[in-house]
UniProtKB/TrEMBL annotation:
Belongs to the SIMIBI class G3E GTPase family. ZNG1 subfamily. This is GTP-binding protein. It comes from Candidatus Methylobacter oryzae. The lineage of its organism: Bacteria, Pseudomonadati, Pseudomonadota, Gammaproteobacteria, Methylococcales. Keywords: Chaperone, Hydrolase, Nucleotide-binding. It holds the Pfam family cobW. Coiled coil: none annotated. InterPro entries: CobW-likC_sf, CobW-like_C, CobW/HypB/UreG_nucleotide-bd, P-loop_NTPase, Zinc-reg_GTPase_activator. It catalyses: GTP + H2O = GDP + phosphate + H(+). Zinc chaperone that directly transfers zinc cofactor to target proteins, thereby activating them. Zinc is transferred from the CXCC motif in the GTPase domain to the zinc binding site in target proteins in a process requiring GTP hydrolysis. Residues 230-323 form the CobW C-terminal domain. SUPFAM superfamilies: Hypothetical protein YjiA, C-terminal domain, P-loop containing nucleoside triphosphate hydrolases. The keyword Signal does not apply.
Amino acid sequence: MNRYQLPPSAKVIERIPVYIISGFLGSGKTTLLNRLLKHAPKSAVIINEFGATPIDQQLLREHKVPLSTLVGGCLCCQVRGSLTPLLKNLRMAWESGDRAFERVIIETSGIANPEPVLDILLRERWLAARYGLQGVIVTVSAGMGSDHCDRFPEALAQIAWADTLVMTQTDLATAEVIANLDARLTALAPAAIRLTAVQGELDPDVLLNVPKKIRRLRDAELPDLPGHRFNSFTLQFEHPLSSDRLYKMLEYLIADYSKQLVRLKGMVYTPGQNEPLLVQGVAGKLYPAMRLPVRATDDGVGRLVIITLGEVKGLAEDLKAQLR
């Protein structure tokens, strides 16, 4: 048998592992990412947020990792062209000797289809030679049940592309809802590895060491995906806001706009407290608020990002009126 050897001048290119975390709005992607970074701190993180105001990066404030944010649209459409130069810059920094990270984790926005990100990593030759896709991890909230799969095609696409499905927020759902969702996931992604997490708690080694899949490239380039039906706007608070006024406004938003509201997330300052208050919610549900540790870069300005299904005229003005 003939043996072939690379010529002495040939250099084997080391590939950096890449993990993609996807999942619909409010399904616990950032909570899971926090858990992974505690276990694997030598990671570079790319966060994509649909709204123009980044909030998720505030939840990673305890981690000192190379962090990049892509805001104002989704990686599958509006900001897709920003991913390639960002990955090239990361790689060049890594090759220059700044090897502060051993892997790259990309968190897509909650309404992004992962397919275009896969297309970039696998089709663009320069990136494909230097980055190795390890898998697509998709979070699915048991608290939302299986109904949102029917309501939002974006959630279906995320599940269909998953290598690993992580069911989250099982403490917020009944056994019947969990069983129905479990059966739905089996039908949608029968080959995906299935895990369950509560508050992001699971074995990180299982996520980081899943067997790689062989993915077949499209014969043609990926066509442009249809535009999203979602709208995002930000309420900004220059001065501290009392908890009572804040919660009354949020309860009004949850109750009166339950059909249009998809997601709310924000960091708000309250009187007499240096630690900002993190508030989160989804359609029909407001999660318990929590205090975040103070960071030197905090500017004392509160921000609340609201994502709705379609444009809801007059909503921002209505909410401001509630605060008065």
